[in-house]
Specification:
Radius of gyration: 16 Å
Helix content: 40-55%
Strand content: 5-15%
CATH class: Alpha Beta
Number of helices: 8
CATH superfamily: P-loop containing nucleotide triphosphate hydrolases
Strand order of the largest sheet: 2-3-1-4-5
CATH architecture: 3-Layer(aba) Sandwich
Structural class: alpha/beta
CATH topology: Rossmann fold
Number of strands: 5
Shape: globular
Number of domains: 1
Length: 205
């Protein structure tokens, strides 16, 4: 059986990833694909517990290194328990965030050493790399306003300047790895954005 395809959706807070992940899942299932839709951090019982720790605003004393290691621990569990088995049976794995988020948020946003974060990502991903990463790009102020309209989790509470650094890190990644990381305009109606994403996905399936 042919290996499946691993697609990740990325972008700063408020860019519409979760909405688009759901719409893409429906579109790909309609085309006859088995789709395993996941989110990071999360996706397994252990990973969801780690997610709760990471996003709880009460944990405002968490240091950047602790945050990094928790994201990687959650990712390792998800990769071994869910992602690799799904790819082995030929499924399309569609993940809302993966290790590029860690680069963007912990290296770009927090300012941790780039090389350190990349090494940690190698460990946390168990060497499993996305075949295609789609970065939903949006002006940081627009995304931030969307993301915090109903309150802010611990990461969103870092403010607009943090989100601007995150966006810049994503754009650097796209420039470094243009064959894997594609930037997609996140402005417009939901179905317009979905059409753009499907166009990028087309040649990978």
């Amino acid at each position: 059986m042919a290996r499946g395809v691993f697609i990740t959706l990325e972008g700063a807070d408020g860019c519409g990833k979760s909405t688009q992940a759901e719409l893409l899942e429906k579109a790909l299932v309609a085309r006859g694909h088995e789709v395993v839709r996941l989110r990071e951090p999360g996706g397994t019982p252990i990973s969801e517990k780690i997610r709760a720790l990471l996003l709880d605003p009460a944990n405002d004393e968490m240091v950047a290194e602790c945050e990094l290691l928790l994201y990687e621990a959650s990712r390792a569990q998800l990769t071994r328990q869910v992602i690799e088995p799904a790819l082995d049976r030929g499924a399309v794995v569609l993940c809302d965030r993966y290790y590029d988020s860690t680069y963007a948020y912990q290296a770009g946003g927090r300012g941790l050493d780039d090389a350190l974060v990349r090494r940690a990502n190698q460990l946390g991903s168990c060497g499993c790399a996305p075949d295609l990463t789609l970065v939903l790009d949006l002006d940081a102020s627009v995304g931030y306003a969307r993301a915090t309209s109903g309150g802010a989790d611990r990461m969103e509470a870092e403010g607009l300047a943090f989100q601007e650094r995150v966006r810049a890190a994503y754009l650097r990644l796209a420039a470094e790895e243009p064959s894997r990381v594609r930037v997609v305009d996140a402005l417009g109606e939901k179905d317009e954005v979905t059409a753009r994403l499907l166009e990028e996905i087309g040649d990978r399936l």
